Amino acid sequence: MSVIQQILNHRSIRKYKPDPIPEDLLHEILQAGIRTSSSGNMQTYSIIVTRDQHLREKLLKPHMGQKMVVDAPVFLTFCADFNRMRRWLKINDAADNFDNFFSFLIGSIDAILVSQTVALAAESHGLGLCFLGSTLANADAIGKILGLPKNVVPVAGFSLGYPDEQPDLRDRLPFSGLVHWETYSNYSDLEIQDIYSERDNKGWQRYMKSKWLREQDGVKGIENLAQLYTEVKYTRSSHQDYSRKLLTYLENQEFMINEGD
Ligand SMILES: Cc1cc2nc3c(=O)[nH]c(=O)nc-3n(C[C@H](O)[C@H](O)[C@H](O)COP(=O)(O)O)c2cc1C
Q: With 0-12 CB in 10 A as exposed, 13-18 as middle and 19+ as buried, what is 235?
């Protein structure tokens, strides 16, 4: 399969065979990840490979009970990591300019790019994966379980293993709604409706069949997919709470030191 064909064939995998991933294959796909471009080639990320069943069971709660964490043989956590770099600066009597939010974003971008390279390398070998947003939402609890020191923050993670399902390809918004040529061309309301029309129908039908949705609070009175996204899936209070929690964790991890501290 060509690289493009493989990319176009991507689907998230949530059911896994119990088969372990051979050690040399795991090394190969992680090595491929390390070839990813990196800001200033500082490589301000770390990859935590969790195979131990007991540790994955501990990770289950902060990953909001998503069973892929324990069902897949491997869980990978990609962290923004300025610990290594800052230690190296200290040893060499160099200034440390990285105790700030901008540096967190640099490390995050590095980590997230690496995660996608590892994902593609893994899929090229027939492995399947599912990213879990809970990695960032509960970064503090996950960081504790994984023993992360100051200056290290989990930003992305996925379960990894041999697929035990072949789900349908999920839709994407149309190309014309996502790509702007030369400069940004803002949308009219009609264009927005057009861009989302297929998703409005298919997504709504999909959620209406979902057992998960019926178990959620706030479902009553929901009239369309947009409302479902913000009344049920991503509520204002949950996003505000996660934001506050993450900012506190970034402070604790010494990414938010103010001038004069
Ligand atoms: C950053 C990120 C976080 C995600 N978090 C979750 C998650 O917590 N649980 C889940 O089942 N899928 C999660 N996904 C998978 C998305 O739901 C999935 O990529 C999207 O629905 C498109 O489906 P596809 O990957 O099969 O094409 C996440 C994906 C990304 C990129």
A: middle
pLDDT at residue 197 above 60?
A: yes
Does the CB atom of residue 66 touch ligand 1 within 6 A?
yes
pLDDT > 90 fraction of the chain, expressed in percent and rounded = 90
For residue 176, pLDDT over 80 is answered with yes
Phi, psi of 17 (to 5 degrees): -75, 155
Q: State the DSSP code for 182.
A: S
DSSP string, 72-132: SSEEEEEEEE-HHHHHHHHHTT------SHHHHHHHHHHHHHHHHHHHHHHHHTT-EEEE-
Helix (H) or strand (E) holding 33: helix 23-34
Q: d(Cα 41, Cα 171) in Å, to the nearest integer? A: 35
Question: Which residue ranges form the domains of the chain, and what is each CATH number?
Answer: 3-167 (3.40.109.10), 175-239 (no CATH)
User: Is 163 in contact with 17 (CB distance < 8 Å)?
Assistant: yes
Closest CA to 149 of 94, 101, 79, 93: 79
Give which of 100, 79, 132 is closest to 247, Cα–Cα.
100
Pocket test for ligand 1, best of 10, 11, 12 (most atoms within 8 A of CB): 12
Instruction: For ligand 1, say whether the CB of 100 is within 6 Å of any of its atoms.
Output: no
Residue 74, strand partner residues? 160
| pLDDT tens, position by position, 39-79 | 999 999 999 999 999 999 999 999 999 999 999 999 999 99
3-state helix/strand/coil string of 224-246: CHHHHHHHHHCCHHHHHHHHHHH
- Which H helix or E strand runs over 45? strand 45-50
